[in-house]
Design a protein that fits this description.
The chain is an alpha+beta fold and 216 residues long. The protein has a domain of 63 residues. Helix content is 22%, strand content 32%. It is built from six helices and 15 strands. The chain has a five-stranded antiparallel β-sheet with strand order 14-13-10-2-15, with no helix packed on it. A five-stranded antiparallel β-sheet has the order 7-6-3-9-8. The protein is globular.
Length: 216
């Protein structure tokens, strides 16, 4: 948060639990990837410090995945075993031919992932994975390098992981997702939070002071 936001408050970000009803999708398939990862199924409860923050894991429910030294992450067991296949000695490689799709938002938001909330900026890709989970992608170039040529859709294409158990409900089916227009309107109409309990009058004074200081 910059100094101005500290003074006058920042607009709270919406929490996106499911894709918008009218999301514009791009669909891709995973290519064969020679890279491997080291992964271990958790046997105890614990907390893992990752690049995105601290995440809790549970025995038998999460894999601790090491992509590179000091680059580790948690992946829910069902999702990990759908994406990766074992090659021995605790190492795994990604399966090829998996179906993914992604959409973008015109505003920043918190994305409700299976590991917790993650922030997405306006224009970031929000990927729907093989089990219907959604998550923002930070390194878009790396994501695309592991996929086939994208196919764009004006409406929803086939959902990822059509071979997954039909008894599983995806994120979009668990929630009555609003449309992108409704989400944009709600975000635009959300009043900024006031930092430190500042009044609107005090906020206007702060802005005037900053404007005068900039002009001096």
């Amino acid at each position: 948060m910059d100094f101005l936001h500290f003074l006058i408050g920042a607009r709270p970000l919406p929490l996106v639990k499911a894709p918008p009803a009218d999301a514009q999708w791009t669909q891709v398939r995973s290519k064969r990837d020679p890279r491997t990862v080291r992964a271990t199924l958790a046997t105890t409860n614990g907390v893992l410090k990752t690049r995105r923050g601290r995440a809790r894991y549970a025995p038998g429910s999460h894999y601790v995945v090491e992509y590179a030294p000091r680059d580790r992450a948690l992946v829910v067991r069902d999702i990990f075993e759908r994406i990766y296949e074992p090659i021995g000695q605790g190492r795994y490689k990604k399966r090829s031919g998996l179906l993914y799709r992604y959409f973008t938002l015109p505003f920043p938001a918190w994305i409700a992932t299976v590991e917790g909330k993650e922030r997405a900026e306006a224009g970031d890709w929000i990927v729907q994975g093989v089990m219907g989970e959604i998550y923002p992608v930070g390194d878009q170039q790396m994501f695309f390098s592991a996929m086939t040529s994208p196919m764009r859709f004006a409406s929803s294409p086939a959902k990822p992981s059509s071979s997954a158990s039909s008894s599983r409900k995806t994120a979009s089916s668990r929630f009555n997702a609003p449309s992108l227009r409704q989400m944009s309107t709600a975000f635009a109409n959300t009043a900024p939070r006031k930092a430190g309990g500042m009044t609107a009058h005090a906020s206007r004074i702060a802005v005037s002071l900053l404007t005068c200081a900039s002009a001096a």
